[in-house]
Amino acid sequence: MENVLLIGNGFDRAHGYPTSYLEFAEYVETFFSLYNNPTIRQMNGLNNIAKPKYDNMDWFIFSFQEYSAEFCELLSDNMWMGLFDKKYQSLKVGENWFDLERIIKEEVDNPESSIMMDHDKAIGHFRAFKRAFEIFLVLFIEFTRERQRRIPCSNHFSKHFDEIRPDFVINYNYTDTFNKLYDNSVYTDYIHGRAELASDVEKCNIVFGINGISNDARKKDYIEFTKSFQCDEKHIIPEYRNWMLNKTINLHIYGHSLDVTDKDSLIEILSYDIKNVCLWSFDEKDFERRKTAIENYITRKRSKPTIEYKQI
User: Fold this and answer.
1) In angstroms, rounded to a whole number, what is the distance separating the alpha carbons of residues 160 and 292?
2) Residues in the chain with pLDDT < 70?
3) Integer Cα distance of 271 and 3 in angstroms
4) Phi-psi region of 44 (alpha: psi -120 to 50; beta: other; left: phi over 0)
5) What are phi and psi of 31, to 5 degrees?
6) Is the CB of residue 107 less than 8 Å from the CB of residue 113?
7) Separation of alpha carbons 3 and 35, rounded Å
8) Residues 46-54: contacts with CB within 8 Å, 24+ apart?
9) Over the chain, what HEC string results?
């Protein structure tokens, strides 16, 4: 039996990497407050008081000036970033998450959306946003690795992957965290693309968007916002399709919410010969919620797999 590890954004975040859209919004706000400060630019760095608090920004702005300048250009007056920032600013105290993909879908489906009125601008700004997010992921995660060297809690997680010993990784993230921290020899299938620093708006290979467009009249013009179109355009073909074929699978799911935004691919993955699903969960409540999702996604199997609780 082959062991397949399926990981989502919760995997990166559990390792201390700031990869959520909320953290990106916070990062952007701090970036512009410092980048556009003429005093800081003249000093060519932050002062000794500010540096400990914003050392990641000091590192980004002054050690990677080419990319910080690109980051600024990509997001200055970007319509999508403006919309996301409004949502970020409206969060109530204690809220720590917002659904970026839902916000995009609402705009794409809405014939009266002011953002979508200018078709070319809406798509151009969307591409720019994706590239800015790519820069953020690569450089901020690399900064975190440089500072932490070895994640303080990594020993806790290491025992899990010593137990799993994956033969293949299905990665819903854009990052290479598993290979960098645990085992670089295990093949990883980046089914939504992989973030690369040496890229640009046109070459950006990350798949980010919505599953479909509800408004039929708008499907042709705004299909670029769908994940399926982006996968086709970037020639991203899931390699698990061939790898899992004719194999008996023990599937470990770690750090993936199993949300409906990935419903189509999850249904496909679960249609293979999977005998056991290990849901690595923080507690019983988390397990039961995701177990229900798994059961709803298993639609084409004569023999349903067992679903096992594993404590993170």
Assistant:
1) 23
2) 41-54, 92-98, 146-155, 300-302
3) 16
4) left
5) -55, -50
6) yes
7) 46
8) 54/30
9) CEEEEEECHHHHHHCCCCCCHHHHHHHHHHHHHHHCCHHHHHHCCCCCCCCCCCHHHHHHHHHCHHHHHHHHHHHCCCHHHHHHHHHHHCCCCCCCCCCHHHHHHHHHHCCCCCHHHCHHHHHHHHHHHHHHHHHHHHHHHHHHHHHHCCCCCHHHHHHHHHHHCCCEEEECCCCCHHHHHCCCCCCEEECCCCCCCCCCCCCCCCCCCECCCCCHHHCCCCHHHEHHHHHHHCCCCCCHHHHCCCCCEEEEEECCCCCHHHHHHHHHHHCCCEEEEEEEECCHHHHHHHHHHHHHHCCCCCCCCEEEEEEC
Distance CA 282, CA 84 (A): 29
Q: What is the pTM of this model?
A: 0.89
CA angle 217/77/46 to nearest 5° reads 145
* Paired strand residues for 6: 170, 253
Residue with tokens 């594993």: 310
Residue 68 tokens, joined:
């910080």
- Are residues 185 and 166 in contact, defined by beta-carbon separation less than 8 angstroms? no
Predicted confidence (pLDDT) per residue in 114-153, tens digit: 899 899 999 999 999 999 999 999 988 877 776 665 545 4
In tens, the pLDDT along 69-124 reads 999 999 999 999 999 988 888 875 555 566 788 889 999 999 899 899 899 999 99
Residues forming beta bridges with residue 62, ordered by sequence position:
none
**Token pair for 292:** 């229900």
What is the C-alpha separation between 138 and 121, in angstroms, rounded?
A: 26
Residues in the chain: 312
d(CA 258, CA 242): 22
